[in-house]
Design a protein that fits this description.
With about 140 residues, the protein is an alpha/beta fold. Helix content is about 40%, strand content about 20%. α4 links the parallel β3 (about 70-75) and β4. The two termini are about 30 Å apart.
Protein backbone atom coordinates (compact mmCIF):
# COMPACT_ATOMS: atom_id res chain seq x y z
CA UNK A 1 0.00 0.00 0.00
CA UNK A 2 2.98 2.30 0.58
CA UNK A 3 3.78 2.31 -3.13
CA UNK A 4 0.13 3.00 -4.01
CA UNK A 5 0.22 5.96 -1.62
CA UNK A 6 3.39 7.21 -3.33
CA UNK A 7 1.62 6.92 -6.71
CA UNK A 8 -1.29 8.93 -5.29
CA UNK A 9 1.12 11.60 -4.10
CA UNK A 10 2.69 11.79 -7.56
CA UNK A 11 -0.79 12.13 -9.08
CA UNK A 12 -1.57 15.03 -6.74
CA UNK A 13 1.70 16.72 -7.74
CA UNK A 14 0.51 16.54 -11.37
CA UNK A 15 -2.81 18.15 -10.40
CA UNK A 16 -4.73 14.87 -10.56
CA UNK A 17 -7.06 13.50 -7.91
CA UNK A 18 -4.61 11.62 -5.66
CA UNK A 19 -5.40 7.97 -6.29
CA UNK A 20 -2.64 5.41 -6.72
CA UNK A 21 -2.72 1.75 -7.60
CA UNK A 22 -0.20 -1.10 -7.54
CA UNK A 23 -0.62 -4.63 -8.88
CA UNK A 24 1.41 -7.36 -7.20
CA UNK A 25 2.12 -10.94 -8.23
CA UNK A 26 0.59 -12.86 -5.33
CA UNK A 27 3.13 -15.70 -5.46
CA UNK A 28 6.34 -13.68 -5.67
CA UNK A 29 5.32 -10.34 -4.18
CA UNK A 30 6.78 -8.56 -7.21
CA UNK A 31 5.14 -5.34 -8.38
CA UNK A 32 3.98 -5.87 -11.96
CA UNK A 33 2.31 -2.48 -12.55
CA UNK A 34 1.85 0.84 -10.80
CA UNK A 35 -0.06 3.96 -11.75
CA UNK A 36 -1.69 7.11 -10.48
CA UNK A 37 -4.69 8.94 -11.91
CA UNK A 38 -4.07 10.69 -15.25
CA UNK A 39 -7.57 11.74 -16.29
CA UNK A 40 -6.67 15.42 -16.66
CA UNK A 41 -3.27 14.86 -18.29
CA UNK A 42 -4.65 12.43 -20.87
CA UNK A 43 -8.08 14.10 -21.16
CA UNK A 44 -9.47 10.62 -20.65
CA UNK A 45 -12.22 9.93 -18.12
CA UNK A 46 -11.18 6.26 -18.02
CA UNK A 47 -7.58 7.02 -17.02
CA UNK A 48 -8.15 6.05 -13.40
CA UNK A 49 -5.17 4.56 -11.57
CA UNK A 50 -6.76 1.09 -11.53
CA UNK A 51 -7.50 1.11 -15.26
CA UNK A 52 -3.98 2.26 -16.12
CA UNK A 53 -2.38 -0.37 -13.89
CA UNK A 54 -4.56 -3.15 -15.33
CA UNK A 55 -3.67 -2.03 -18.89
CA UNK A 56 0.03 -2.02 -18.04
CA UNK A 57 -0.08 -5.45 -16.42
CA UNK A 58 -2.14 -7.15 -19.13
CA UNK A 59 0.03 -5.68 -21.88
CA UNK A 60 3.18 -6.80 -20.10
CA UNK A 61 1.89 -10.31 -19.53
CA UNK A 62 0.06 -10.53 -22.87
CA UNK A 63 -3.10 -11.85 -21.24
CA UNK A 64 -6.42 -10.28 -20.28
CA UNK A 65 -6.51 -12.33 -17.07
CA UNK A 66 -4.60 -11.50 -13.90
CA UNK A 67 -5.79 -14.37 -11.73
CA UNK A 68 -2.73 -14.50 -9.46
CA UNK A 69 -2.54 -10.76 -8.97
CA UNK A 70 -3.53 -8.59 -6.01
CA UNK A 71 -4.49 -4.92 -6.34
CA UNK A 72 -3.65 -2.22 -3.80
CA UNK A 73 -5.44 1.07 -4.41
CA UNK A 74 -5.78 4.13 -2.20
CA UNK A 75 -9.50 4.71 -2.81
CA UNK A 76 -12.49 2.38 -3.08
CA UNK A 77 -12.83 1.69 -6.82
CA UNK A 78 -15.71 3.20 -8.78
CA UNK A 79 -18.14 0.98 -10.71
CA UNK A 80 -16.06 1.26 -13.92
CA UNK A 81 -12.90 0.13 -12.17
CA UNK A 82 -14.75 -2.59 -10.25
CA UNK A 83 -15.97 -3.99 -13.58
CA UNK A 84 -12.43 -3.95 -14.97
CA UNK A 85 -11.14 -5.68 -11.81
CA UNK A 86 -13.78 -8.36 -12.28
CA UNK A 87 -13.07 -8.82 -16.00
CA UNK A 88 -9.32 -9.06 -15.30
CA UNK A 89 -10.02 -11.69 -12.63
CA UNK A 90 -7.94 -9.88 -10.00
CA UNK A 91 -7.48 -12.25 -7.04
CA UNK A 92 -7.65 -9.78 -4.13
CA UNK A 93 -8.51 -6.11 -3.83
CA UNK A 94 -7.06 -4.06 -0.98
CA UNK A 95 -8.21 -0.44 -0.81
CA UNK A 96 -7.58 2.47 1.52
CA UNK A 97 -10.25 5.14 1.81
CA UNK A 98 -13.93 4.36 1.47
CA UNK A 99 -15.84 6.43 -1.10
CA UNK A 100 -19.51 6.86 -0.13
CA UNK A 101 -20.13 9.17 -3.11
CA UNK A 102 -18.37 7.42 -6.00
CA UNK A 103 -17.40 3.99 -4.76
CA UNK A 104 -18.70 0.92 -6.52
CA UNK A 105 -17.54 -1.84 -4.17
CA UNK A 106 -18.87 -1.11 -0.67
CA UNK A 107 -21.05 1.80 -1.82
CA UNK A 108 -23.19 2.68 -4.84
CA UNK A 109 -23.80 -0.22 -7.19
CA UNK A 110 -21.72 -2.68 -5.15
CA UNK A 111 -20.58 -4.28 -8.37
CA UNK A 112 -19.16 -7.48 -6.91
CA UNK A 113 -22.46 -8.24 -5.13
CA UNK A 114 -24.52 -8.20 -8.33
CA UNK A 115 -25.76 -11.50 -9.80
CA UNK A 116 -24.35 -10.43 -13.18
CA UNK A 117 -20.80 -10.21 -11.78
CA UNK A 118 -18.84 -13.17 -13.12
CA UNK A 119 -15.84 -12.81 -10.81
CA UNK A 120 -15.56 -11.12 -7.43
CA UNK A 121 -12.16 -10.75 -5.80
CA UNK A 122 -11.63 -11.03 -2.08
CA UNK A 123 -12.04 -7.46 -0.82
CA UNK A 124 -10.28 -5.79 2.10
CA UNK A 125 -11.14 -2.14 2.68
CA UNK A 126 -9.78 0.48 5.04
CA UNK A 127 -6.05 -0.26 4.68
CA UNK A 128 -4.12 2.87 5.70
CA UNK A 129 -7.49 4.62 5.51
CA UNK A 130 -6.42 7.68 7.50
CA UNK A 131 -3.41 8.36 5.29
CA UNK A 132 -5.31 7.65 2.06
CA UNK A 133 -8.27 9.84 2.96
CA UNK A 134 -5.88 12.52 4.21
CA UNK A 135 -4.33 12.83 0.75
CA UNK A 136 -7.77 13.41 -0.74
CA UNK A 137 -8.81 15.92 1.93
CA UNK A 138 -5.66 18.00 1.47
CA UNK A 139 -6.00 17.91 -2.32
CA UNK A 140 -9.63 19.01 -2.34
CA UNK A 141 -9.14 21.65 0.38
CA UNK A 142 -6.61 23.34 -1.92
CA UNK A 143 -9.10 23.23 -4.81
CA UNK A 144 -11.87 24.96 -2.86
Amino acid sequence: MEQAIAEAGAAAARGEVPVGCVLVNAASGDVIAAAGNRTEELADPTAHAEMLAIREATAGHKTPRLEEVDMYVTLEPCAMCAAAISFARIRRLYFGAYDPKGGGVEHGGRFFSQPTCHHAPEVYGGMEETQCSGLLKVFFSKKR
